[in-house]
Amino acid sequence: MIFPDYHLHSSFSDDSDANIKDIIQSAKHKGMTSICITDHYDMDFPVIKEAPEMKFDLDIPSYIKTLNEFKQSLAPDFDLRIGIELGTMPNTLDKLNDFVKNNPYFDFIIANTHIVDNMDPYYPSYFEGRSIREGHRRYFEDELYAVSNYDSYDVYGHLDYILRYGRDSKNPFNPMDFMNIFEEIFKQIITKGKGIELNTGGLYKDLSQTHPCKDYLKLYKELGGEIITVGSDAHSPDRIGYGFDVARDLLLECGFKYYCTFKNRVLKFNTI
Ligand SMILES: [Zn+2]
Ligand SMILES: [Zn+2]
């Protein structure tokens, strides 16, 4: 059994050139019979000085039309699901609610934090004038704000993705430093019947950890978290399903018996 990859990007995303045919072919080659493509849409993405051309907009009509055509041509042997990765910011939450209400075409919605204080942590300028620890804390605070004030999603994605950036070899990140804020984040997610994802992207980002890391994954389970999807965050076809063997072992080790899939935003538990 291989998990269906529930976090994938195609050339509809500003930061990917992946052709959908190649994505499907790679997924089939890796033994998958279903995947969910989740292209980026970051509403009101700010102008980032290092990359002013990046907008992370998404042509919704064309995206839905194209994926639906693929979906129909692939059925019944291959089950293509249509997802989206929505970047949240405190000032876009209401508008994102309206967006989801007015665009009922998705099987699955990942919400994520990409921008904090109008800056992208991908670039070093995010950490200018603050310590790395403070930069990390601000990111987690914005996630807590989002999960406390926003419900139009199925899973909140790559929760400790900020750890990909602002790394300090002399003073490595200690998950215990932010256990309290993660407890708050998970309580909101669980109480509202939402879930998280196990994102294997960190395994090929020279980080050697999934998002979230094992300590936070365990905490989620201990607090009663059950809803979890598995995704590679692949931006190229060769990365599809990357590290899913690691993900499987980690889920079992942390006590999960199921992984989740979504169709028309309806949750299904599947035995690992
Ligand atoms: Zn993301
Ligand atoms: Zn992504």
Which fold name corresponds to the CATH topology? TIM Barrel
Low-pLDDT runs of 5+ residues are none
Which percent range fits the helix content? 25-40%
Biggest β-sheet description: 6 strands, parallel
Helix count from the secondary structure assignment: 8
Numbering strands along the chain, what is their spatial order in the largest sheet?
1-2-3-4-5-6
Query: Could you say what the CATH architecture is?
Result: Alpha-Beta Barrel
The N- and C-terminal alpha carbons lie at a distance of 8 Å
Q: Can you give the mean pLDDT?
A: 96
What does this structure look like?
This protein has 272 residues and is an alpha/beta fold. Helix content is 33%, strand content 18%. The chain has a single domain (20-271), classed as TIM Barrel. Helix 3 (93-102) links the parallel strand 2 and strand 3 (108-113). It is globular, with a radius of gyration of 18 Å. Residues 7, 9, 85, 233 line the site of one zinc ion.
Considering the chains and any ligands shown, give keywords for the structure.
272 residues, TIM Barrel, binds zinc ion, globular, 8 strands, two-stranded antiparallel sheet, six-stranded parallel sheet
Give the SSE layout:
Elements: H1 20-29, E1 34-42, H2 60-74, E2 79-88, H3 93-102, E3 108-113, H4 132-149, E4 155-156, H5 179-191, E5 195-199, H6 201-204, H7 214-222, E6 228-231, H8 244-253, E7 258-263, E8 266-271
Summary of the model, kept short:
The protein is of the alpha/beta class. The protein has eight helices and eight strands.
